Amino acid sequence: MERARSFPSRRRLLKGAALAALPYALLPGTEGTAEAAAVDYALAEWAPASTSNYTASSRPTAYPLDYVVIHVTQETYSKTVSIFQNPHKQVSAHYLVRSADGHVAQCVREHDIAWHAGNWDYNTRSIGIEHEGWVDQPSYFTNALYEESAKLTAAICTNYSIPKDRAHIIGHYEVPGTDHTDPGPNWDWTRYIRLVNLA
Questions:
Q1: Could you tell me which residues come within 8 angstroms of residue 8 by beta carbon, excluding any fewer than 6 positions away?
Q2: Is 130 a catalytic residue?
Q3: Which of 31, 75, 110, 130 is an active site residue?
Q4: Is residue 61 in some structural domain?
């Protein structure tokens, strides 16, 4: 005996069509995916900073983007992520690059203002990139770290028409009023700017 085939009702078909028209991130049960899809740099993992550690904005409409600021964490990769996620720390950067393999985490959206430069004017007009390591330990500045960071910086510069030169890709120590020394004397600026321009 053959079973009767059941066909979907018209209402069910219309509901399925409506769901199919929605972006994947808005579908029921994909709330976590929406955040993961929020990265500005396709090769980055989303590791969001606490909303207490940055200022929501609408850059480059609210503020022009003129600089990429290079930092060194003086801490491990995992500890830096946890610092950015601690609402009491009052610090963040847009990106964090891991030493061993150049893995990139995005912690703050580019349109928002990360608290990384110690100078409000520079915070509003820059993207901050932290690099795992210590300024006095050049072994942390691996080939992978330089190469992946340079790709990230090149993408940012291209996206916002920031010149790929030392006047616009600066170290934290070059921000007016800072007492920081990173990325330090072991950071190879000549190599880095060359990689940015080759990326």
A1: 16
A2: yes
A3: 130
A4: yes
